[in-house]
Structure to design on (331 residues):
């Protein structure tokens, strides 16, 4: 069993850095985008989803990001603070940028997600807006990697990671790679490489590690070799997710293990990675073992993909434990 040592005397459990936006989910399931009659509105965006996941499970979450100075920005703020998330690090941009918006189909697979991110507000966050004391108030800083895709958000993200290292706040990098946000895979792999070296835990899927190996090991598909490559500098744990095949976890001391999935009736595939990260981080900030965290993350992900949205389908602690108990009893 593996324990991740975290500073305990902190008012916040985890601060998540990245985008918070609006998700518009198709009203009808199994319907193509062109035929959908309307959409239901929720808060989304990878970082917001992770913060909500952590908060709903009962830990104290904070947020670093930026929304537009408009009605969608206000909606995102009010939903997140209603979820008990501390927004001291959430900026508002009035320069004409726009809060990120995603439209999605509701299909178990081959599901179209259209994201509108022209002049996205989250990418306007500046390094001087990142408060080192805020970061020092948390046990963990969770970075979602799309924040690295453009300046000035890229510099804000890297300095946030640097502040975290200086204040003994553990750093988790959720790769969260969105190809359309980057000029080339080479650029992405260089910045992700720097960010990975500043992180205690790196979480990504195979395609994301492929991108991160664009320069160092092009064409590699071997998870063991990938883990060995990334278990360097500050990185103690590498998690390689594989959708319905579960996940593999590698530790710096050579320990490795796998986690399968909890089978469910899938409504939509997205949200799995964010709920997985939320369940894992919630476990770690409560002093749980890594193995337990990966199991809770997998269960949270299964609950989420069987739900009708990302944020609202994040489980509470009670729902998570009931779900696992029911599944284990039926084995
Ligand atoms: N269909 C599924 N049923 C049950 N659990 C799932 C399913 N898909 C994913 N999971 C769980 O969620 C975890 C993360 O999923 P995945 O590997 O798809 O992450 P991801 O690629 O980051 O996803 P996304 O970017 O769509 O949120 C998996 O390791 C698994 O535990
Ligand atoms: O991450 C995004 O910006 C898109 C979403 O809003 C959606 O919540 C999702 O795809 C989660 O991974």
């Amino acid at each position: 069993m593996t324990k991740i040592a975290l500073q305990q005397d902190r008012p916040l459990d985890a601060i998540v850095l990245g985008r918070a936006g609006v998700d518009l989910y198709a009203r009808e399931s199994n319907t193509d985008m062109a035929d959908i009659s309307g959409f239901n509105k929720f808060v989304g965006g990878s970082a917001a989803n992770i913060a909500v996941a952590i908060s709903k499970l009962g830990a104290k979450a904070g947020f670093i990001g930026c929304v537009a100075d408009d009605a969608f920005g206000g909606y995102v703020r009010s939903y997140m603070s209603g979820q008990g998330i501390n927004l001291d690090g959430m900026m508002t941009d009035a320069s004409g940028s726009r809060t990120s918006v995603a439209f999605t189909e509701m299909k178990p697979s081959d599901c179209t997600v259209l994201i509108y991110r022209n002049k996205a507000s989250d990418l306007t966050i500046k390094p001087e807006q990142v408060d080192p004391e805020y970061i020092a108030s948390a046990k963990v800083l969770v970075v979602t990697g799309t924040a690295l895709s453009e300046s000035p958000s890229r510099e804000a993200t890297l300095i946030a990671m640097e502040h975290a290292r200086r204040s003994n706040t553990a750093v988790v990098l959720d790769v969260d790679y969105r190809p359309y946000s980057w000029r080339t895979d080479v650029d992405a792999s260089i910045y992700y490489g720097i960010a990975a070296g500043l992180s205690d835990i790196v979480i990504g899927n195979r395609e994301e590690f492929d991108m991160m190996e664009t320069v160092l090991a092009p064409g590699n598909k071997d998870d063991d070799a990938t883990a060995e490559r990334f278990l360097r500098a500050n990185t103690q744990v590498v998690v390689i997710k594989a959708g319905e095949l579960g996940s593999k976890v590698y530790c710096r001391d050579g320990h490795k293990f796998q986690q399968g999935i909890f089978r469910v009736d899938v409504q939509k595939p997205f949200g799995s990675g964010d709920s997985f990260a939320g369940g894992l981080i919630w476990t770690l900030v409560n002093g749980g073992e890594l193995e337990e965290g990966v199991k809770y993350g997998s269960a949270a992900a299964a609950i989420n993909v069987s739900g009708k949205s990302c944020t609202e389908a994040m489980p509470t602690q009670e729902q998570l434990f009931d779900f696992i108990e029911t599944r284990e009893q039926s084995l």
In short: Residues 108 and 267 are 5 Å apart (CA to CA). Residues 19, 21, 23, 44-46, 49, 100, 102, 113, 115, 270-271, 273-274, 310 surround LN3RO5KU (ligand 2) (CB under 6 Å).
